[in-house]
Amino acid sequence: MLRLEGIHYRPVPHLPVAERDSGENASRIVGDLIGAEIAQTMTAHDSPQVDFVMAVSTIMDMPFVSGYLSWPLIAAAIARHTPLVPRGFTASYECAGWGFALDYARRRLPQGGRVLIVVADLNVLDISFWRKNDNWGPSGFGVSTVLLTLPPADQVALSVNVAKSVQGMGEYCADLRKWLSTSEGGRANVPFLPPEMAGIYSHFLPKDRMMRDLHGAWGHCFGSDTWISFIDEIDRGDIVPGSVHCATSASLRGYWALSDVVLDQAILSGFRAPLDAAEREDAA
Amino acid sequence: MTRSPVTFEGQLCRAWNAGKPTRAQSYVPPFYDALDFDSYRLMGRARTARAFVTYPDHYALLAAILGEVRAGCGPEIDEILINSRMPSVVRLPADFFGTNVLFLNDPEDEAVRLAKTGVQVLVIRERFVRHTVEAADNGLSLLWWNAPEDGTEAMQRLATRLRGLGIAPAAKAAA
Q1: d(CA A63, CA A75)
Q2: Tens of pLDDT, residues A194-232
Q3: In this structure, what DSSP letter does residue B16 have?
């Protein structure tokens, strides 16, 4: 089973306005942010050894395809902060990206290893579509760093899926219900949705096994919803080291990931202070 | 030392399913406020080519290319990496799931990393224009590391098959 060693989330409501000066600037800003998060996460852990690093996102799409953002430039900026530069970046699997990254890690590291997943949803150029949306209500932006131990491939309880019908959320909920009925996991998180949309959860899922829907506090934070839920539950003492839970994520387009995870006895987790543009420019 | 990959360079030269009726399925990126217009102005500076595919066509074409790659290059490929170009607007076809395919931005570095460990890896890098905000030229590059002895011949046969999808070999690759 995947073992969670570290989970941190940094809210980043706005990027510095210098992101608008040029694509090179924007790439450097994004890379600096991601690099600093990786470096801070690894400083807290005893061992610097990591075998696989991957970055995923939901919302960072058009800036890349238009050529404004460049992954090689972002990677170069990350490298100034840490040797743990992600070996790739993908937004193709949307909010379920971390699951597909872990699935790939399982395929390429069949013997297992230590894995760092970065979930980065930074609203480059402050696009209004991503700030708030009829599909999920208000959004939250930021960076999660998730440090895990990946066991040998045959011991990874991870499922990544694509919906067959137009009812992707319904298929995800039905799959999660089935998963929970056979899993040893205690509690499962759900994507953050506003109350008027979250009815699907109470319809399908066992209430006593669900983590809170934190949409009211955080908005929808895409692939980071999962990790915000886990940090919140650890902070409240609702889940404790050594216990097993189910990490999930589902995307608007119908991709989802389910994975049992055990919380390491020495797990480090927490929310980092929001990094807003104004503060960053003061500090500069 | 890893051998150079077997490569194909091509160009999409016509609309997907040319001559057949198709739903328009046009998609306009969401512009809502003045800042959005400025953002799209900033993003839309790169040169682009004529669009031959809509967003849904794009995935249908990509699935057809994946099918030809699998048929033409054999089942021995360990990993297929495709450059990620979001947004997608529509769901990825099922062909891309439950198998050895991963979408990544700029996947060549990862391909080289895998190739050095003996993995047979094929990169599909496509640059099919869907919207003029994109920096794209309708090109298609295939790069096949650790290909078998008859890899070059297999790639030539694949090139012939890709013509049926409207993709012509680029002049340089034919030399």
Answers
A1: 16
A2: 999 999 999 999 999 999 999 999 999 999 999 999 999
A3: T
Residue where the block lists tokens 């491939």: A153
Instruction: Give pLDDT, residue A42.
Output: 97
Type of residue numbered A87: R
- B29 contacts in A (CB within 8 Å)? 62
Number of domains, chain A? 1
ipTM value: 0.95
Interchain CB contact of B12 with A (< 8 Å): no
pLDDT tens, position by position, A32-63: 999 999 999 999 998 999 999 999 999 999 99
- Which residue ranges make up each domain of chain B? 6-17+27-174
Handedness of CA A220, A225, A230, A235 (dihedral sign): negative
Best mutation target among A22, A92, A169 (most B Cβ atoms within 10 Å) is A92
Q: Which of B27, B28, B39, B137 should one mutate to test binding to chain A, selecting the residue with the greatest count of A CBs within 10 A?
A: B39
Distance of CA A87 to the CA centre of its chain: 17
**In contact, A112 and A150? CB cutoff 8 Å:** yes
**Coil, helix or strand at residue B27:** coil
CA distances from A106 to A152, A184, A224, B97 (A): 8, 21, 21, 15
Residue position matching structure tokens 């960053």: A280
pLDDT at A278 over 70: no
**To the nearest whole angstrom, how far is the Cα of A282 from the nearest Cα of chain B?**
23
- For residue A25, what are the contacts with CB-CB under 8 A and spacing of at least 6? A18, A19
User: Mean pLDDT in chain A?
Assistant: 95
Collect all residues with Cβ–Cβ distance below 8 Å to A226 and sequence separation of at least 6.
A98, A189, A247, A248, A249
Provide the residue range defining the domain that includes A135.
2-283
pLDDT in tens, B16-61: 888 888 777 778 778 889 999 999 999 988 888 999 999 989 999 9
Task: State phi, psi for B142 to the nearest 5 degrees.
Answer: -115, 135
Cβ distance B30 to A129 less than 8 Å, yes or no, reads yes
Token duo for residue A267: 């797990």
CATH number for the domain harbouring residue A181:
3.40.47.10
